[in-house]
């Protein structure tokens, strides 16, 4: 540990050094920053096959919607929305800023037809529970409509 | 390298920690440094551990909360397990983007021999987040090396502006921490972080 960290420690803890354990409590610092999250893991099936490319396009639209909606509900920034879509191939996604759009990673055969996909999504967004809960339900509903 | 060095890779949400870690971990391994990796996401499940595994890097995931407080015990147990299984020269912890670092230092210092901290800062978002999220300043003040990431998405004026603002934060705390603008996506910043980790070797 360097001097920097010691200085910072004193800076954060005040004159009493490390006696104020609760100053560093997880809830305390998250509450200060209003940081919150939801996780969504789901498996979705279609009546008719659709291409992997079409699934990715639609999921990307949903993620962009989620990011924009978070801002419109009062979040100062998106935070981070990340995860992956697993079809026959797996595609990772990350969204940090609406202006930058969704960053996709991983090779996939765009023309390959599939009849189901799975999603794992972690959204860390500075919004209160009730708003995040509502967003999660809406995202889940939109993901069910993909295809 | 004597003993086990603990390297914290921190940075606010979406600052590029996992992307950086992919190259950093590989760079250390290429120098015959045995590396154990711990990953903490703030959520019920982890995503970053899956990403690292997709790139052939084994990582121990710590989920269900933030290692700075909620799952401190999981962090300690994971360090012990890694030391027993791998006896690594370096244990890297990729924190969640919301982690406050001082509690982490306090938790791990009994179990490791030295701690270094690399903090990533998203150049494009710094101005939006520094005043809104207290944790951002904490992460910068706790750093031994600050990497201003996503250089490829910023122009020279933006880089200089953020560098000055980060320098102000450090100056107020009388710190001479190194700052470097990088693109983690292009593998930049890895050499500086490796030099930091290996300097006592």
Any descriptors?
heterodimer, A: 147 residues, alpha+beta, five-stranded antiparallel β-sheet, 5 strands, 38% helix, B: 201 residues, alpha/beta, Rossmann fold, globular
Describe the structure.
The complex is a heterodimer of chains A (147) and B (201). Chain A is built from four helices and five strands; from the N terminus they run H-H-E-H-E-E-E-E-H. Chain A is an alpha+beta fold and 147 residues long. In chain A, helix 3 packs antiparallel against helix 4. The N terminus of chain A is likely disordered. Chain B is α/β, with parallel strands linked by helices and 201 residues long. Helices cover 41% and strands 19% of the residues of chain B.
Spatial shape of chain A:
elongated
Q: Strand fraction band of chain A?
A: 25-35%
- Uncertain regions spanning at least 5 consecutive residues of chain A: 3-24
Number of helices of chain A: 4
- As laid out across the biggest beta sheet of chain B, the strand order is 3-2-4-1-5-6-7
How many DSSP-defined strands of chain A?
Answer: 5
Q: Which shape of chain B, going by the Cα principal axes?
A: globular
Number of domain units of chain B: 1
Please describe the biggest sheet of chain B, giving its number of strands, its sense, and whether it closes into a barrel. Answer: 7 strands, parallel
What is the CATH T-level topology of chain B?
A: Rossmann fold
Strand order of the largest sheet of chain A: 1-5-2-3-4
Strand content of chain B: 15-25%
SSE map:
The complex is a heterodimer of chains A (147) and B (201).
Chain A: H1 3-13, H2 26-33, E1 36-51, H3 52-72, E2 80-86, E3 90-95, E4 103-105, E5 113-125, H4 129-144
Antiparallel strand pairs in A: 1-5, 2-3, 2-5, 3-4
Helix pairs in contact in A: 3-4
Chain B: E1 5-11, H1 17-30, E2 35-40, H2 48-54, E3 60-62, H3 72-86, E4 90-94, H4 101-108, E5 114-122, H5 126-129, H6 134-141, E6 145-149, H7 156-172, E7 178-181, H8 190-198
Parallel strand pairs in B: 1-4, 1-5, 2-3, 2-4, 5-6, 6-7
